[in-house]
Amino acid sequence: MIDVGYLYAAAAEVLLGATSRREYKVDAEKLIGTLIARAAERLTDGELLRVYWFDAARDRVPTVDQRVIAQMDYVKVRLGNLNSRGQQKGVDAMIRADLEQLARHRAITEAILLAGDEDMVPAVEIAQAYGVRLHLWGVEPPYGTNQAERLVWEADTVEILPADFCRSYFTKVGTAAAGTAKVAAASQPAPVVIGPPSPASVFGQRHSVAVTMSAADAWDTLERAKPKPTTKEAADRNAIEETGEYVAHKWILTRGRDNIQDLLPGPTLPTVIDKELLVEAEKTLGYSLRDLPEARIWVRDGFWDRVYREFDHDGKPW
Questions:
Q1: CA angle 19–97–121, rounded 5-degree value
Q2: Considering only CA atoms, which of 260, 283, 284 is closest in space to residue 273?
Q3: Which of 35, 188, 241, 306 has the most CB atoms within 10 Å of its CB?
Q4: What is the pLDDT of residues 244-277, one digit of tens each?
Q5: CATH topology (fold) of 2-172
Q6: Which residues pair with 107 in a beta bridge?
């Protein structure tokens, strides 16, 4: 049972001196795989039931990374709410509830809890009351300790993951450059179009309008921008690329710029996200792209054209 807020914050502090998730990227899939392997070495008397990944998201809407993690075998993502100050709400209660249910129904005999907050103490006590042996894991702190003393007291065993254990999974990103790009994109006026507008210029204008509109007006604008369905026989590259742009524009409005920026630098999408893109494109076009490999490429091209314009990115590695 992993308190992701603690794991990420503790590892980023000791490895990168970072205090915000915006400052670093995490290869969560590989990190989880390594944690599972380590758990298997420690729990020699039984097999791993599953990994509970306790994280948070705004309005509990999963981010790109969380969607990918949720597709992993033997991993269950639990999401609390992330408030406007970046604080997790409801995560402790979910850990307590899951531990209690598993212990009460004798589904587990041992549990590994990777956490540091004293609020975890009730969860530990409940599990132990049902006979579960509780192993507390922590991340090596830069100095002192990053786990509550009482939590350490209550655990049956305590293990600290060395900084090197996490090092290869955390990478610092250039937040200053990203911030500059955001300001530039927000302040750039809509381009002046002479003659018939291209799909690129139309979508660029739509974004500039949408950010100043009410939510209702933005959705109305998005609906008007929606490409008209075509038939499989009449499929053409421009219409399909425009559909890819439309999906990207819709996701920017509905999922937020921060979540879409997580997809950069591209142009490869995680398998789960790529499938969502193609499904939405098929719904808009009104026919399946399964037998049209070139058309699937065109959808992705249109999608990335829109994303790159949104973040003033030319498609080259940063």
A1: 60
A2: 260
A3: 306
A4: 999 888 888 888 888 888 888 878 888 888 888 8
A5: Rossmann fold (3.40.50)
A6: none
